[in-house]
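User: structure tokens for this one?
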Amino acid sequence: MINKGLSYIGIGFLYLVSLLPFWFLYLIADVLFVVIYYITGYRRKVVQQNLRNAFPEKSDEERCKIERDFFRYFADLIVEIIKGITLSERQINKRIKILNVNLINSYFEQGRNVIGAVGHYGNWEMSALSLGVITDKPRLIVYKPLSNKIFERFFIHVRSRFGATLVAMKNTLRKLSEMRRQVSITVLVADQTPVQHEAQYFTTFLNQPTAVFLGVEKLSKMMDAVVVFCDIKRVKRGYYTCTFVPLAEHPKQTAEYEVTELHVKYLENMIRQQPQYWLWTHRRWKFKPEDKH
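Assistant:
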């Protein structure tokens, strides 16, 4: 009962903070960066190890700059995600520009479904909100359920308030089967870490063996859906663009794991170009291929 009460208090606090204007939230972010980076050292060792493994060719000074730039952006990202709780449709359209919505519409006109892969890169939460306003066709966002069901219901409400439908990972196939007579776009976060016993495929990602979900590949082949990558770019503080980049227009004609390799490599190239915008605090490499045996 106490935990339940604290959850509701936490949600109320987040809602009130989200009502603050952006300029004030960024002042909070400036303070938050100092607290996270210099005072508490939140997950700095995790970030440093990830950067050493991912960029062995870079100098200590280069990796240190990426680390600092990442944490500065991480503070911004926290307040932007909180602000997203109460962002209006007009504000969403102002803050994130979808540069080629016509591409998705052209696939719909052909009767094709679309599978969108996205990474923990840039403000993926804001891009998920924007998905709700780009089309009136069904928009599905696949999510990983939270252990706290009160917060899960709250974030489902936040993410779906512009018309997108949130679907738990385990229910994705069933939901898409129900919608097989409708064209739709389904978005999956493709760089999440599978549970160790469910890891079926490893690839080389950022210089190290990495377990990846095969959801994008399996769903696209099942539906013969076009696979696109949601390429998010940060323009300036609080402003982004998103471009849908076609990766596989006919996934049924691709070799096994080809679709997976395509979206993994695309994300990797994005990270190498601007590494500060990927979620380096994520414990992405929890286990290795030999741990499966």
